[in-house]
Amino acid sequence: MFTLRNFGTRSLKTRIIRNTATIKLPQKALFNNYSRHRYDEIARVAKPAPLWEASAVVDGVIKPLSLKDYISKFLVMIFYPMDWTFVCPTEMVAFSDNIQKFKDINTEVVGISCDSPHSHIAWEGTFIIDDKGILRVAHVNDTQIGRSVNETLRLVEAIQFANKHGEVCPVNWKSGDRTIVPDPKLSKDYFSQI
After folding, report:
1. Could you say which of 49, 77, 88, 149 is catalytic?
2. I need a surface site. Which of 58, 96, 114, 145 has the fewest CB within 10 A?
3. What are the Cα distances from residue 23, in Å, to 37, 39, 53, 74, 111?
4. Is 114 labeled as catalytic in the residue annotation?
5. Do residues 3 and 22 lie in contact, with contact meaning Cβ atoms separated by under 8 Å?
């Protein structure tokens, strides 16, 4: 069982769990009118993200939630092992404080927690799913290492730029930096200036 949290409120600082849900991942499903790919239960980068459904508590009301709710948007799914541990709350507050930056780039942020001391899969993961439902980033940390909100924003912006322009983003790329045309001859322009 996973707990799903929808960020965007400062209730995290008061340790009030407002938005929680249970996610059920089907073994195989078809994303109707969205993709003709089959969905496996294992998430794979550059493949369609597993279809999931949840019943979420948002502003005190239970509502259904699924990957289909995020069609045409980017989705950052932040997995964390437990509420109110040491590192995770700092990450959740940081993501919550930066929620508008994500919204400004057409990205929603959802937190998912194993939230059980008996859980045998305690890990922290960040998954970025693009606006076509393709898993683009899968990043898993040891529980002692915090995530970077700025790096997550940078990754979403890099994916969006590459999708829009067909160019690739080099090491440490930030929005506005030079990119590389993925062609042996045309890429010489970039490499001749570094």
Report:
1. 88
2. 145
3. 21, 15, 6, 19, 11
4. no
5. yes
